[in-house]
Amino acid sequence: MTITVQNFTRQYINGQWREGGSSGIIKNINPYTGEELLTIKGANHADLDDAYSAAQKAQPIWESMPLIEKKRLFERLIDVLQEKREEIIQWLIQESGSTLLKATSEFESSLRMVKESASFLTRIKGEILPSHIPNKENRVYRTAKGVIGVIGPWNFPFLLTMRSVAPAIAVGNSVVIKPASDTPVTSGLMFGVIFEQAGFPEGLVNVIVGRGSEVGDAFVSHPIPSMISFTGSTEVGRRVGELAGKYLKDVALELGGNNAMIVLDDANIEKAAKAAAFGKFMHQGQICMALNRIIVDESVHDEFVEKFVDIVKKLRAGNPVEKTTFIGPLINQQQIERIQKDVRDSVAQGAMIVLDGPVKNLVMSPIVLTNVTNDMPIAKNEIFGPVACIIKAKDEEDAIRIANDTPYGLSGSVFTADIHRGVEVGKKMKTGMVHINDQSVNDEAHVAFGGEKDSGIGRFNGEWAIDKFTTTKWIGVQSGYREYPI
């Protein structure tokens, strides 16, 4: 399928496609072929002001729109998504290096996210509470926060941007999206197209494509947005949180991870190995929830390594368009160089390479390391690439200690024949999400998603998204005259 570049070289502000005002440009490159997909003239501060002003004007009109009209628009949005399914999948493949499997999965998850968000239209509710004061009642209303700034990532660009945009819109907010520079279409400009075609009001969804060095800080510190939703690295997330805190803005931050799978001594090793291979190498390991460390009880360590390597050897790396490809390209050369350095430094500290493969352009074949300790770079740092490190644990207690010995706490996994034992281990893991007898890469539109410690602040999805993207107001109602002691 030939992808289109309709409108994707322009900014989307107040319902209009217009050229950015910056002198800088952003080149959109296919990471597998190296082909330039398109070039975008970047946004400047004036564009940013216009986008936020448009969103501010559109938001109260949208929030007060009749429910039946909002429902109709969300139904049309779902139709537009389904109509553009193949186009979105092809953009994910060609822009972010997604394999066909990953791109298809990402689209389907995004569609479920929109359907879940559509249900928020009738799930927003307030409360009436009693009062200690005679003839008074306390009403608690839930309303939109206003304008939400959304900063999208490049790894799961469509889903992780949609995870903020759809819920924010559903509960009455307007949004301005700043997409990742590596994926300006799937984490931004595509949203302009689909919301425009669905018929949403002008100014409700705006997209500005600009370098972080030019508009990044201003996107957060601008006086109009009341909340910033960011998905990305912990380093950048700290900067977002710092700026937002200075101006007393709320944040939703989904940041890095150093996720561990614990394989206990009673686990089904073959099933654990297969799950680990998926959770490690899906999308080349470029997932915040991907397994960073596989911690295996020493009594089953050698058996696990043997079965795991046998499975990983069969994973095909190459052209992401082809159905049989499981591992596609990394997003850019800097990622390759960073990962290779961590592997070299870890081997110098005693890690052993038990499976190695070639690097061709941006396609890195799987690497498996054993004899890894938690202080080695490959275990200490977030890999975000197709390298698996296996750590031997003395027993269950040691495995939990190793898993928790990190500043991160996003997702995790435990494999065991005893589900109760798995749950108890999971409760001791200092992480926002744990999956028993499954790998760590899971995201369901109706279940709380988020991490602890350096992995972020806040929860996405379901009722937690409703809480995050709304605010509450207390209105006390006195039905009779109140006597005052004065």
UniProtKB/TrEMBL annotation:
The UniProt record lists the Aldehyde dehydrogenase domain at 17-475
Active site per database record? 254
State the EC number(s): 1.2.1.97
Which EC class, in a word? Answer: oxidoreductase
List the catalysed reactions. (2S)-3-sulfolactaldehyde + NAD(+) + H2O = (2S)-3-sulfolactate + NADH + 2 H(+)
Gene Ontology molecular function: any one: oxidoreductase activity, acting on the aldehyde or oxo group of donors, NAD or NADP as acceptor
- Reply yes or no: does the keyword Oxidoreductase apply: yes
UniProt KW keywords: NAD, Oxidoreductase
| Annotated family | Belongs to the aldehyde dehydrogenase family.
Function, as annotated, reads: Part of the sulfo-TAL (or sulfo-SFT) pathway, a D-sulfoquinovose degradation pathway that produces sulfolactate (SL). Catalyzes the oxidation of 3-sulfolactaldehyde (SLA) to sulfolactate (SL).
- What this protein is called in its record is 3-sulfolactaldehyde dehydrogenase
* Organism annotation: Ureibacillus terrenus
